[in-house]
Design brief:
Number of strands: 13
Strand order of the largest sheet: 3-2-1-4-5-6-10-13
Number of domains: 1
Largest sheet: 8 strands, parallel
Helix content: 40-55%
Structural class: alpha/beta
CATH architecture: 3-Layer(aba) Sandwich
Order of helices and strands: EHEEHEHHEHEEHEEHEEHEEH
Number of helices: 9
Oligomer: single chain
Strand content: 15-25%
CATH superfamily: NAD(P)-binding Rossmann-like Domain
Shape: globular
């Protein structure tokens, strides 16, 4: 049974990937500063920071694969805390890479972003681009095999409050209205986190070694279509306050502006329909509200 370390495995995407790995028979350890509330009995938890080289070395020892999801992923937070973002996303990633080399890890899998193609995304984008370049350098200098996973717009259970679809649903369910920053024409290829996690295991095939992979969905919607769909599913008349001031943090219809390492695109062969996915989030919000009352 191959051993896998999921760094940042207590978070949104990391926890789903950890579960898929366990379901597939891998021996999974989760490395995070916070214990996972979705921790399974067949998973090991290792508390630690990616800034702690000694702790990383101990955690990675004996692992065949290392997935790296840790760091700052919120664009707004990256703008407020550039030094922290650079420290965690670049220095932290470099610490992980060093530990992987020392422990002769077979493959390092890095959670990157579609934003690396764009000029948007502030320090978040800058640190993802920088990390990809550093990862390629580690491969050239030390022979560390890697796979870069450039995720598109994820949604689903366990998401952070700032996640796009989840934040829309939460405000519409709780307040019956939505304050939206943008024109409504912003397009995304949405993918359910469960589908993204499945594809994150598919790349363990040797075919994907030392490659960049774009992981997106097959359901393309603009923001207005998505918002109207959520209101209809919730059963409320749309009440939307649109702030059409230009948002320089996010791309509108396409991220493609910069050339980076060429990527192969992976999409799920079968997938969670976005309507079903929205219902799933609504049900989880209602369950959470019921448990708190």
């Amino acid at each position: 049974m191959d051993k896998v370390l999921v760094i940042g495995g207590s978070g949104f995407l990391g926890s789903h990937v950890a579960d898929k790995l366990s379901d597939s028979g891998f021996e999974v350890s989760i490395f995070d500063i916070n214990a996972s509330e979705w921790m399974r009995d067949d998973q090991e938890f290792i508390e630690g920071s990616i800034l702690d080289s000694k702790r990383l070395h101990e955690a990675i020892n004996g692992k065949k694969y290392v997935y790296h999801f840790a760091g700052i992923a919120d664009i707004a937070e990256s703008k407020l805390s550039p030094e922290k973002t650079i420290e965690l996303n670049i220095l932290g990633t470099t610490n992980v890479l060093n530990a992987c080399v020392k422990n002769k890890v077979s493959r390092f899998i890095f959670a990157s972003s579609m934003y690396v193609y764009s000029s948007f995304g502030s320090f978040y984008n800058a640190t993802k681009k920088s990390s990809e370049i550093i990862i390629e350098a580690f491969n050239k200098e030390y022979g560390l095999d890697f796979t870069l996973l450039r995720y598109g717009s994820l949604y689903g259970p366990r998401a952070q409050d700032w996640n796009g679809i989840n934040s829309f649903i939460k405000q519409i369910v709780n307040e019956g209205k939505l304050d939206y920053f943008g024109s409504g024409e912003e397009k995304r290829e949405y993918i359910h986190v469960s589908d993204a996690a499945d594809l994150s295991l598919e790349i363990l095939s040797k075919d994907y070694a030392n490659k960049a992979i774009t992981i997106t969905g097959l359901q393309v919607l603009n923001s207005k279509e998505l918002i109207d769909m959520i209101f209809e599913i919730v059963g409320k008349d749309p009440v939307v306050r649109m702030n059409k001031k230009k948002n320089d943090d996010h791309y509108v219809k396409t991220p493609y502006r910069h050339s980076v390492m060429h990527a192969r695109k992976l999409t799920p062969k079968s997938f969670v329909d976005i309507g079903q996915g929205i219902l799933e989030i609504i049900d989880s919000l209602k369950e959470s509200s019921h448990n708190e009352s």
